Amino acid sequence: MSEECIKELSNKERMNLPYQEMPLHPGIERIKHFYEVPTGYTPEMAKAEAMRCIQCKTPACVAGCPVGIDIPAFIKLIEEGNPADAATKIRESNFLPAICGRVCPQDKQCQAVCIVGKKNDPVGIGCLERYAADYERENATLKMPDIPKSTGKKVAIIGAGPAGMTAAYELRTRGHEVVVFEAFHRAGGVLVYGIPRFRLPLEIIDEDIAFLEKIGVQFVYNMIIGKILTLDDLLESEGFDAVFIGSGAGLPKMLNIPGVNANGVYSANEYLTRIYLMQADKFPKFSTPLYQGKKVAVIGAGNTAMDTLRTAKRLGADTTCYYRRSRDEAPARSEEVEHAEDEYLNWKWLSNPVEFITDEDNFITAIKCEKMELSEPDDSGRRRPVPTGEFFTEDCDTAVLALGCDVNPIIPATDKKVRINKWGVIMVDETTCQTSKEGVFAAGDAITGGSTVILAMGQAKMAAKSIDKYLKGDLPDAPDVPTDPEHWVKEWKFS
Amino acid sequence: MTDRVKGIIESINIDSEEAIGRVLDQLDTLSKLTDGEKTDLAAVLTTIFYHDHAGKPDMTRLANRAEKQIARFGEAALGTLTAELTDADPESAAHLGRAIALNGEKAVAILLDTWNNKRDDDFAIINIVQALSYFRSDAVIKSMPEILVAAKSKNHQVRAAALYALGKLALRLSAEAFDEKLRLKMFDTSFNLLSDSKPLVRKDAARALGKMIKKGILIPCQRKKVFKAFNAILGNDEQHEWDNAFIVRHEACHFLPYCSEAETLADKYRQSYRIVSKRELCDKTFHFAIEAPFIANKLQAGQFIIVRPHGLSERIPLSICGWDADAGTIHIIVMAVGKTSSEINAMNVGDCFTDVVGPLGERSHVKKHEGTCVVIGGGYGTGAIIPTARDLKALGNKVIGIVGARNKDLLLMMDELGEACDEVRPTTNDGSAGKEGLVTDVLKEIMDREKVSHVLAVGPVPMMKAVSEMTRADGIETFVSLNAIMVDGTGMCGACRVSIGGETKFACFHGPDFNGHEVDFDQLVKRQKMFVKEEKKALATLEI
Ligand SMILES: Cc1cc2nc3c(=O)[nH]c(=O)nc-3n(C[C@H](O)[C@H](O)[C@H](O)COP(=O)(O)OP(=O)(O)OC[C@H]3O[C@@H](n4cnc5c(N)ncnc54)[C@H](O)[C@@H]3O)c2cc1C
Ligand code: FES
After folding, report:
1. pLDDT in the model for residue A495
2. Which of A228, A460, B183, B439 could connect to A443 by a Cys-Cys bridge, CB 3.0–4.6 Å?
3. Is B384 helix (H, G, I), strand (E, B) or coil?
């Protein structure tokens, strides 16, 4: 399509163009493998989708993006047939576009406020972001950023998840020496041990980690901070000038019902970690075992639950979702629920598990649930599930609890100066991400108790900016009583 | 043929350096050659390449001039050159190759075409690969996939030629020419060929890797791998077995300085996890000392570690039986029961674990007690109680150790335990050493004899359960160390769930020591059996 032709389109015409749906592997086929489900835009589709953007003067989408990507600008570049520059544009505010294009809840952020979406489907911002990032990767158009001369300041980053990676990037590109300490034997955090391959292929994460290595970020694995080195060790004997905590949530919530410790009952963290980090699906070549049943019950309806359901299905199980509210309240990203619904899963909405029934060897044999119904909306507008007194029991030989996480206590437990709230969430000043301990900053799931990749990144950027200031002596002292991040949790609660 | 060309051709006397020089001078003065003329001249000039240059330095110089001259003919000469290239001897092929390479992008396409047609002719392929290695333009990157395939050829000379080209191009082209995927493939291919059976191939593999490093297109972990491999080639590692081919060692030696970079900040924290000593304690049970200075520096009695012996391994928890903070080592006892423990026991001094994480869990409960402290161990647990016994004693407690085993050959670490306790009481099921019977028999004796205030039991679940039952009535403080199934060891997964006084706890970070009177041992035993079937399957695949 020629330049002329593009210019001639009026906003009204643009808004009426049809939404370009990203092609998917069909459900019947994709449940047999772990390949990525959406196959990506062709250049023509990407241009056609980009044309739907009306280039608002004050774009609501940018305000809806936790890291403030210049969305209209990058879409325009795609429309002009220049995906490489589009990727560069995105990178100005988000250095993980391939990841975010795939896992961000756009339906609750940028796309939720898209003006086009008022009349028609909103512009496929996530799909376009993914397209630009994939183009950049496949055609190797990425240019290395310039790293300024070393400032001589050293920052220790705890955790190599999205928060840690972002802080590392932001600080390294400001010329600081950065060492990332990761507890596991590989980097990526939840991206690797939680989010499935069919949503986020491993190569993409690895490439972003290699990129960080290339700009001089140093990674050390098998280092559980709090245990092998404390925060004080880092700041005193090890000579780091500041510490960033991006240690994630990482303490799974379990149900307090009979049979919860039965064999075959897992937390989603354990189930997904065994498969995606330890590759139990390739047992016995990889030695980590998984007791993978034929009938799998998954409890919960957040992203983690969807991921677990779809993973179990791909491993050949008859898989059922049990959730105490209805589909409309399911907290998962809407695209995930839709994709899951095409994958031959069973759904038991309004079903609250009350017991896992076991045999004499403690193996789970069935799940017992109470049927629920929804109340009238309460003050917060939410309809609460209320018990009906009616019960039902269904056979299963594996149950996975996907009920979210609390914050791992290892770091705050080993340093009393780092204040936490009653849920164990690390408290920070909401404008600087500074904790109550001098020189220590935190972001990501560690300060929200579980949210999203992009929010973790947004906070990590803020924290990195503050650390940079702190290192220059421009930051006020650590706050005595940091803000309780409860409102963040409320606003962004995710899984 | 035009007259002026004919004149030149006739005046060429291939044996006379002087005559050739004259012709080349003459060519420089000709202008506006037609394509036909160029082709004819090229055909004649290439004869210079075939001449034996031995002992005639001028001839080499003239051949080099001829290369440039022919290259100037451009496309008109490329057909002739490539046709000759495919069956030229190595020396002439080098001249032909350089002449071709000076043509840049157009020439790449023609060479790749020729390659396609000569797929089964190894001789031709070697010459083509060599020609590709002379290019200076990034356009030649298009041929990289073919070169990488050639590096896997059955013919070792083809493999070597491919590696040679790989190294040359790595150094010569701009770094941007190599995208991520290509870099990875180039690295993997060359690295694998470091263990080729042919010295020639190993040599060129080492050289290719060296050049990639020199160029700066490898990432730190790759550089580290090469650094290690080169040291192994030179016999600088623990094995002290150098590569017996001098040419391979020579390359490794030459490029080694490029791989060892300045110590980075992070290097300090990279522990080697190397086995520094190994000794057999009894059948299938070994004591290891592993290099892990940061862990050794922080360990406390009762804590444990998680290890992965190699990259395909599961993560398994292991108790600590001691450490040496000065030497930077930690000590473990491994009893071969399943696949992973058998793999560990097959490892030797100098081998490195892929991962060791720790210290994990909380310190054992130690304080000054009024009465006697009794520490009880069975199997590997005998090792695990030693550090706690030592701590208890250091606080001024009277500490008695009880050790249980089936027979005297299975009693382990008795000397070390003896040093940490005031008294050690072995028991064996068959009476072959110490008292015949169970640890609880001895515990009963001690409880009848004196006031016991604190008991710690580490070992098989039935033993810990029996001990806890015995002390319950008297309300003696009793701790047991729970060996639940684990994955991460930090509280992230919940695999290690145990029921303590009706509440779910995570053994890895609330424990591993818990009040024995509150532990649901039956559930623990059953949970430990969660993967019995899978473990059998895994054991069947054990290769050591
Ligand atoms: C199954 C699943 C699906 C999800 N899907 C989505 C999605 O589609 N979109 C989305 O936006 N979000 C999703 N999320 C949430 C998202 O993954 C998290 O919000 C995000 O990863 C948080 O990043 P983080 O860096 O704060 O923490 P993490 O990713 O948890 O990383 C923390 C890292 O720190 C390490 N660590 C922990 N403690 C220590 C210590 N003491 N010392 C050293 N290292 C330590 C951990 O090993 C880990 O690598 C999902 C989460 C799960 C579990
Ligand atoms: S081993 Fe994963 S929580 Fe304890």
Report:
1. 31
2. A460
3. helix
Side chain identity at residue B309, one-letter code:
P
CB atoms inside a 10 Å sphere around CB A447: 32
Beta pairing class for B497-500 and B503-506: antiparallel
Count of structural domains, chain A: 3
A71 and A199 inside one domain: no
Q: Residue A397 belongs to a domain with what CATH number?
A: 3.50.50.60
Within this chain, do residues A395 and A417 fall inside the same structural domain, yes or no?
no
Asked if A351 and A309 sit in the same domain, the reply is yes
CA distance A302 to A332: 4
CA-wise closest residue to B311 among A396, A287, A148 = A287
Give the residue from B476, B464, B471 showing the smallest Cα distance to B371.
B476
> If you count residue pairs, one on A and one on B, with CB atoms under 8 Å apart, how many are there?
145
User: Looking at this protein, which amino acid is placed at residue B181?
Assistant: K
Query: What's chain A's average pLDDT?
Result: 88
Whether residues B191 and B45 fall in one domain: yes
CA distance B178 to chain A (A): 9
Query: Does residue B279 share a domain with residue B142?
Result: no
Q: Do B535 and A264 touch (CB under 8 A)?
A: no
B212 domain-assigned:
no
Could you give the percent of chain A with pLDDT greater than 70? 95
ipTM computed for the complex? 0.88
Residues B419 and B350 in one domain: no
pLDDT at A1: 47
Q: Is residue B308 part of a domain?
A: yes
Say yes or no for a CB contact (<8 Å) between A181 and B269: yes
Q: Quote the tokens at residue A489.
A: 């949790």
Q: What is the pLDDT of residues B319-367, one digit of tens each?
A: 999 999 998 999 999 999 888 899 999 998 888 899 999 899 999 999 9
Q: Of B244 and B263, which is predicted with more confidence?
A: B244
CATH number at residue B354: 2.40.30.10
The pLDDT value given to residue A487: 47
For the record, the structure tokens of A355 come out as 């017991």
Domain interval for residue A272: 254-403
Of A104, A138, A172, the position where a domain reaches its end is A138
- Give per-residue pLDDT as tens, A435-444: 888 899 999 9
| B21 shares its domain with B87 | yes
Both tokens assigned to B303: 């804590």
| CA–CA gap between residue A266 and residue A275 (Å, rounded) | 12
Are B18 and B109 contained in the same domain? yes
Q: If you ran DSSP here, which 8-state letter would residue A434 be given? A: B
C-alpha B72 chain-centroid distance: 49
Longest dimension (CA), chain A: 76
Pair A17, A52: CB distance under 8 Å: yes
> pLDDT tens-digit profile of B161-202?
999 999 999 988 888 888 878 888 999 999 999 999 999 999
Q: Is the Cβ atom of A208 under 6 angstroms away from ligand 1?
A: no
- In a shared domain, residues A258 and A392: yes
**Closest Cα in chain B, distance from residue A16 (Å):** 40
Residue A483 in any domain: the answer is no
pLDDT tens per residue, range A416-437: 888 888 888 888 888 888 988 8
Q: Does the beta-carbon distance from B269 to A274 stay under 8 Å?
A: no
**Is A490 among the domain residues?**
no
Residues B332, B388 within the same domain: no
Q: What percent of chain B has pLDDT over 90?
A: 51
